[in-house]
Write a sequence for this structure.
């Protein structure tokens, strides 16, 4: 146990430590001596796994195809928002990109109906 750390932070810190062991690298965004957010990322198997944690209850994780990152606004193959422990753990549990069961579809179908002559 980390000395002086509130116990409610421990699952979130454990998830971040697990991401370090899984090969994530980090960047933090400082402001006046305080950390505003922590960005974790790794590239593997043709995909970029990334997460940003603003606080223990506000984190977003995503997976992108490396080939899509040159586009202006690449669509994630997978994305979650929630607390750090949950989203980082879910990200780490994803199969490698391209493996059976791995997310492989970018974007989602539009709910906007278009006549067939417009789509064709």
């Amino acid at each position: 146990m980390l000395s002086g750390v509130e116990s409610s932070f421990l699952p979130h810190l454990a998830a971040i430590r697990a991401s370090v062991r899984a090969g994530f690298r980090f960047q933090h965004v400082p402001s006046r001596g305080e950390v505003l957010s922590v960005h974790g990322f790794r590239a593997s198997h043709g995909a970029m796994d990334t997460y940003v944690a603003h606080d223990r209850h506000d984190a977003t994780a995503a997976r992108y195809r490396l080939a899509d990152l040159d586009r202006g606004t690449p669509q994630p193959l997978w994305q979650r928002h929630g607390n750090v422990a949950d989203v980082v753990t879910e990200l780490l549990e994803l199969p490698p990109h391209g493996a059976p069961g791995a997310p492989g579809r970018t974007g989602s179908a539009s709910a906007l109906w278009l006549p067939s002559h417009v789509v064709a």
